[in-house]
Prior knowledge:
With about 400 residues, the chain is an all-alpha fold. It has 2 domains: about 200 residues, MFS general substrate transporter like domains (Growth Hormone, Chain: A), CATH 1.20.1250.20; about 200 residues, MFS general substrate transporter like domains (Growth Hormone, Chain: A). About 85% of the residues lie in helices and about 0% in strands. The longest helix is centred in the middle third of the chain and has 30 residues.
Amino acid sequence: MIGRRDDAAYVVGAVSGAHFLSHVYLLAYPPLFPVLGSEFDVTTAQLGLLVTAIYVPTLLLQFPLGGVVDSVGAKRVLVAGLVVTSLAITLSGLATAYWMVLACALLSGVGQSVFHPADYALLDSVVDSSNEGLAFSSHTFGGFAGFAAAPVVVGGVGIAYGWQLALVAVGGVGFAYAAAFALTTAPVHARRIRTSDADPSASTAALLAEIRSFVRQLDLLLVFAFYLLSMMAIVGLQSFTTVLAVDAYGFDDATANTLLTAHLASTAVGIVAGGPLANRLPFRRLMIAAFLAAAGGVWLVASGLLDAGFAASVLLFSLIGLLIGLALPSRDRFANAAADPNATGKSFGFFFTGLSLGAVVSPVLLGALIDARSAAAAFLLIGAILLAAVAIVVVALLSGSDGRR
């Protein structure tokens, strides 16, 4: 019989691996957009709808599924979510019409809805203040590594062997990982539920009342707002860096994608460095400094001063990614400090509902601004959004909203 491990390093690694797959699946479709567009004869807007379709269920379901996490334990919910999103991606590879892929994208979003409340509940069960920054950076790094891997893996297999095989093969990996996770990871969060005073049945029966209660708590609301704004900026950079590079600076598509890859890779590097810093430095002040500098970098990008050429562009986009990455483990400490220790699943479900809302709103808002004005105007707005996120942290710092821990 396979033993189930409950040591912190193993649980953090296992959860981070699940987060890696989650983010690969979030970006499974965009690398295949050119071939999917030709295959189904659809517009770019219809292709973009596949991404929106993934995020809409996460917007609606993360908070209630956080309640399920607090009722039955995070491990079971995480395994179920991984199976559902893996199934959706696999079925996408068998689709014969666009509407089938769209339906699979919605189903994938249902599975994706469990990751953040379940992941953070599991992490919170095995870490303390001395190592939570490192644990959160490992988890966040896993996600951004998944973002970086998706174009290489899904796109590479799709180009070499066809989009159908790419989606079926990548989806199949998720089933194998779900089985390994179920067999080898101890139910560390379920143990906490059994020893806590929380009433598991209350999470569903009083869902709306709890949402109202969360909204009325300043520390929770500030974290929600920060997650919303930071995700708007992050998704904006991910979605429109290539557009800015082509439209404003005249780079070709391949060069524009190189800039995006440099940005994402630097974000992942920043996350690794940001974990130890989140443990050793005042994490709110680190968030403020990093996002202020990132906002300045984004405005420099939008100003047109990158006409110096490709090297300067790579350097600045990499710096922006590095700064944002440095702040993300501190962001998670900011959230964990505010989370209810007896309802971590619901707390993080609430926080990541803000993240999903930002992911849904940002592409639509910034895309409309690009159509109406320019990509540079959209990047000016991204810089302003980063400053607004800084203001949220400043309010938390000045108001003494230091959370429960």
